[in-house]
Amino acid sequence: MVATVGLARPALADWQPKTPEDMNEFTELTDAYLRLTEAFGGGGGGGGGGPELEEAIRQIIEAVEQAKDQIVQHIDEITSAEVQACVRTHTIEFADIENMSRTVLQLWAQDATFCASQATEYFSAVSTLRAADNIGFLTGEIYMIASAARAKAGFSIVALVENNIRANEAIIARLTPTNCAIKRHPPEQGTPPERWWECTAYNGDVGRSGICTGFACQPNRAVAEDRATLKTSRAIAKDALPRLRAALEGAA
Length: 252
Description:
This protein is of the alpha+beta class. The chain has helices at about 20-40, 50-65, 70-75, 80-95, 100-125, 130-155, 160-175, 220-230, 235-250; strands at about 5, 180-185, 195-200, 205-210, 210-215.
């Protein structure tokens, strides 16, 4: 239910949150993943070599290393032993992908694919938003590792990218705040009213839309939702989703 309440005038006309530094490292993981899909023909099949693919895999290894502290923190909080073990194992072994024989690489790529599917099922099964958010941070990483392994092994990554897109859609939908209300300042004499959306994410973070001035204007709820979830995996999924869709279209 939408509530309309009066309250004191905020100190800032348009509240603008800052993205945490550790979130930027997860965005860099997405950037590296997109370079991989480009090197592999926009997510298509075939491949298994070439300097562009090798460079993309190298960049992914570096991105995983840079985000390792945040990745390990989220792995440690997974309550499913099976998912925790497979994500941790593939994160550790990924650095040695260049040293794997083709036979080992192909088997490992298939195992990484299964781990990505496990992570997606785990996200759907957990009952709390905190647990869902925690696995949401790792979903992109394990899909990226599985895609890199499959690309280097010469397997198609189209279906994996499709599954990653669906996983991001699920993350966005589940972590979208439902605790939202329109706030307003009653008009002072001779001035129009001011209204804005305010949303509170599951972790208590508050996001506000820009202030809309006038009797007919409609503030943008989506802005408040996005700002409230800047420190969650929803923000990473929203950044990745349109780019992954574009990469998949490029394979068509």
